[in-house]
Specification:
The complex is a heterodimer of chains A (373) and B (248). With 373 residues, chain A is mainly alpha-helical. Chain A has 14 helices and two strands. Chain A has helices at residues 4-23, 31-47, 49-55, 64-67, 77-105, 110-119, 127-160, 173-200, 206-237, 240-252, 254-264, 267-278, 283-314, 335-355; strands at residues 202-203, 363-364. In chain A, strands 1-2 form a two-stranded antiparallel ribbon. In chain A, α2 (31-47) packs across α5 (77-105), α5 packs antiparallel against α7 and α12 runs antiparallel to α13. The chains are: A mainly alpha (373), B alpha+beta (248). Bound molecules: iron/sulfur cluster (2 copies).
Chain lengths: 373, 248
Amino acid sequence: MIVLYPYITGLVAGAFIVSSLYHVFGRTELRAVARFSLASAFVFLLFAPLPLLMHLGQPQRAFNIMITPNFSSAMAGFGFIYAGYLIVVVMEIWFVMRHSFIERARGAGPIAWLCRIILLGNAHEDDATRAADHRIARFLAGLGIPMACLLHGYVGFLFGSLKANPWWSTPLMFVIFIFSAIVSGIAVLIFHYMVVARLNGWRLDQPCVRSLAKYLWGFMIIAVALELLEVMSIAYKQTEEWEVLGMLIREKLFVSYVVLQYLVFSLIPFFLLGINSLFSLRDRVANAMVWTAATMLLVQVLLMRWNVVVGGQLVSKSMRGFTDYFPGLWEKEGIAVAVVIFTLPFGILWVFNKIVPLFPEAVPRGGSASGTK
Amino acid sequence: MTDDRNRSRREVLKLLAAGSGLLVFPLGTLLAGEREAAGDGARAPYWAYAVDTTRCIGCCACMRACRDENDVTAGVFRTWVERYRIGFDGEVRVDAATDNGYVFEPAAGEVARAFFVPKLCNHCEKSVCNQVCPVGAAFNTPDGVVLVDQKHCIGCGYCVQACPYGSRFIDPKTHKAGKCTFCYHRLAEGLAPACVHACPREARIFGDLNDPHSKLSVLLRQRHYRLLKPELGTHPKCYYLELDREVV
Ligand code: SF4
Ligand code: SF4
């Protein structure tokens, strides 16, 4: 369950950064997914605390984190950072999509009602308000970037600040977390965008996909390089820690860490995205490669979270020997619950899309073929 | 933060004790021996623990006493005894006793040396568990004991991860953090912790660091001891007498 928490907050931060690339940095080629990425950040954010709640022994006391915080604890910041970020994202959505809400509110029926409530009675619209909305949204998007980094960097810090655990205790941890968050965020957008486009028979916005793929490539290189550097520096220094960590990597985590995380799910996407960025391939081939790479990177980041979170707990505190862990299927923190928590955001996104279209500019696919798989 | 507060508070108490000590000095010295575990005297106690690893025989009476005294949930331990077996090839094998004692499998290779290391919460002076608890449920008492406020703990388990000594656990029954309390309820009555009381070999020693004549203070002056993971800066208060170099 605790694996899912950094994973989902990572998706939030990553998706948000994509939307900010458009809103703040004017990467207009990302227009096709700008709204979608913002909405994704929002729904994933809604679900981020759920795995935490599932994990708490006394969930009914969860709000004590905010009522009686102990400021020397890294964890005490969660409630505040989370709430602050949620406010920024909600406000940004409101300003970005106000126009659409107004349009929907004109009709009749429950959705129009809902939109009227969301608008808080403010349905006035002209050029001036539109410009103002735009400016505010841009400001919020800018504000959101450091907050997204804070939210996720903080998650990394939660682990990195525990001196008791040699596998976690590194100042690099939060940087690594931020970059892998961006990777997973972009990857989930590509994955989801392509699937949705395929299902609805839309034409993919090629420049957008290409640009996303390039970002993905760049960020994944940084993320993987940072992680490798970190492990390599421990390994090279051959300190006492390495004795136990080396054993952890060689024995306990060999399959999930070395083979899966690096060799399979990092190397293959790296080549796929690299080839895609360096050569101009036919759209169909390129899209297939990008989709595969994005899907694999989604798995890669999940593996990385698993290896960090679970790996760290396998080392016994006496630094001798390891413990074992495998989640049960049906327990409170088991696989079934994890799957449910992870699928719910996609469902909410679907509902969201019913209220305001997330892809307002989608073009139905014409005769020309641009498949996704 | 809290630690510093505790410490300065202790210093104030010490000063007060020194001041009033001038008046009650004769009585104070007379009672010092008896007052070892009482904590109600002029001198505020500062509790600490020592383990004499040369004396432990691995009988695990302490573990059973702890479970009975504190009604510790089955499957988790507030204190446990690790068995170290080191072969001639230098290989170190460590295991811990369960409620049924140790598992005796045929030794793989010859054992060069072997010993037992009782473990428990180190009641660190600068406890990380206290530092990381998001709601402040973990705290250090002024008399040097680390406790969990069961009414505030939210069961997040962060302290369990933060403790370098594996002293904490999430209690499977209460779903809150559990750990050794130095038998705080017994200290209040002037008794030593149950494990200390139960040990037939006096391998576990408990006492007041503020009292230079307590058995603990005397031992720490006379014997060699080591701390567990001192490099982490937690300032643990479990002193391991003649601890083998293989134990960290
Ligand atoms: S040994 Fe662990 S539980 Fe005990 S005071 Fe130190 S950090 Fe806290
Ligand atoms: S489990 Fe309880 S005592 Fe431990 S950090 Fe969480 S709230 Fe604090």
